[in-house]
Amino acid sequence: MARPTANFVCTECGWTTLKWAGRCGECQQWGTVIEKDAPTRHTAPARVAEGRAARPITDIAPRDESHTPTGIVEFDRVLGGGIVPGAAILLSGEPGVGKSTLLLEVAARAAKRGQRVLYVSAEESVAQVRLRAGRTGALSSELFLAAETDLATILGQLDEVRPELLIVDSVQTVASSLVDGLAGGVSQVREVAATLIRVAKDRDLPVVLVGHVTKDGTIAGPRLLEHLVDVVCQFEGDRQTALRFVRALKNRYGPTDEVGCFEMTGDGIAEVADPSILFRSGSTTPVSGTCVAIAMEGRRALPVEVQALIVASNAPQPRRVVNGVDSSRVAMLLAVLERRCGMPLSGFDVYVSTVGGIRLTEPGADLAIALAIASARREKALDPHLAAIGEISLAGEIRAVAGAPQRAAEGARLGYTSIVDASAVHVREAVRLAFASAADEPAGIPEF
Questions:
Q1: Packing angle between helix 327-340 and helix 366-378, nearest 10 degrees?
Q2: Which CATH number fits domain 73-273: 3.40.50.300, 3.50.50.60, 1.10.1610.10, 3.90.1150.10?
Q3: Which residues form the RecA family profile domain (predicted)?
Q4: Domains 73-273 and 277-436 in one fold
Q5: Which of 119, 154, 285, 330 has the largest CB neighbor count within 10 A?
């Protein structure tokens, strides 16, 4: 008896199965299992056209990709200097974070420079986009609006308008009549993105695609979408605060460690060229439980004030509440301070937070968190001109972090004359130095 053959395959990972399944058993993606084409066909070699033969790489002249600035310095920083002709850019982010507002500003500034821009809104009507543009001042006669969800119609709009920049908001809401399934499905997103990117390459037309994200923060749709485009940018921010960050997760034309800083206002989105003041309190009086960390956001060093509050507790399990920092990291630092520095903390509720809503995820903020907790526990303010840089190990050792010279230079620029870093060697020594830097503190090891 002939053995049964696998007739279905996953388009994402290649997993095969005898029966159709709605979810791939290997990569756990939905809607990616399709039937194999039968019979199997073999591709015959084709004659290489004249002028397309492979050549030694040393015989190929290099081509400088020219960046066209968007006029938004922070966005240009992330893109590597601007938008490259023929580039496909994917901008993703949570709903309401400000993706459409940013791209409408990009479109308006390009149009005011004389470029013809086509802004395709597949989620809002042209009247809604016009209302937002009037509020933010993004009006120009060279900016064309279209509310379309059909891919063929969008291609027809391209032939009519012949733009120099295309923005599609969003790729998950556009559908092609040639592919089965609803808009946003794996097959539809793949077809729409591939078609628009092919048009971008053929016409040397830069295309900016807006992408939705799932509940866990990843870009919705097939992973192939991120491989197809040239640049992937993530728009981050808490809707409870006005601060927004744009990060480059992939960039074929520039660095991937740059971060752009923006602020949402009533008049649209505004650049924040120097965000150093946003993450520090404006108090001029020294307060216990505060310490400044010099954190790295991409290539940019940012001072972030860490605040801690210690309250005596009679509960069998004291509370540990954090905001803007990792809870497990704080729990580890509390254990290190109690064990390595003799600081009793097991009978206290501990609250740790950052200023300005920023989130510190890097280990370079460990030392600042530890010093803020020590200051709150002793109820003694640290020197307001002190900043801390360093990662703390379970043994209490302070480790050097990446970008230490740049962090120290930024701290010196902002007036921090005392920098406690890996030169302190041990967290107990760092605590001693931090309290010794205060004018009213002795140089000895503080008692708790």
A1: 60
A2: 3.40.50.300
A3: 64-213
A4: no
A5: 119
51-83 burial, b at 16+ Cβ within 10 Å, e below that, comes to: eeeeeeeeeeeeeeeebbebebebbbbbbbbbb
Measured N-to-C along each axis, helices 427-436 and 366-378 cross at an angle, to the nearest 10 degrees, of: 60
DSSP E strands in 57-146: the ranges are 88-93, 117-121, 143-146
> For residues 166 and 111, is the Cβ–Cβ distance under 8 A?
no
pLDDT of 149 strictly over 60: yes
Residue 448: is its pLDDT beyond 70?
no
Helix ranges restricted to H, 298-421: 327-340, 366-378, 404-413
Task: Note the pLDDT tens digit of each residue in 321-355.
Answer: 999 999 999 999 999 999 999 999 999 999 999 99
Question: In terms of pLDDT, which residue wins out, 388 or 297?
Answer: 388
For residue 339, the one-letter residue type is: R
pLDDT at position 39, please? 52
Question: What are the backbone dihedrals phi and psi of residue 349, each rounded to the nearest 5 degrees, phi first?
Answer: -80, 135
Q: What's the CATH number of domain 277-436, 3.30.230.10, 3.40.50.970, 3.30.230.80, 3.20.20.30? A: 3.30.230.10
Radius of gyration of the chain (CA): 27
* Residue 83, both tokens: 């938008």
**Rounded CA separation 242/265 (Å):** 7
26: pLDDT strictly greater than 70: yes
Q: Which three-class secondary structure state does DSSP give residue 248?
A: strand
Annotated binding site for ATP: 93-100
CA 238 – CA 403 distance, rounded (Å): 27
Q: State how far the alpha carbon of 182 is from the alpha carbons of 151, 178, 218, 404, 441, in Å.
A: 13, 12, 20, 50, 68
Pairwise CA distance, residues 145 & 126, whole Å: 6
- The annotation places the binding site at 93-100
Does the pTM of the predicted model rise above 0.85? no
For tokens 């400088």, the residue is 64
Q: What pLDDT shows up at residue 441?
A: 46
Could you tell me the residue ranges of all domains in the chain? 1-39, 73-273, 277-436
For residues 235 and 246, the answer to whether their CB atoms sit within 8 Å is yes
Residue 359 — very low, low, confident or very high, per pLDDT cuts 50/70/90? confident
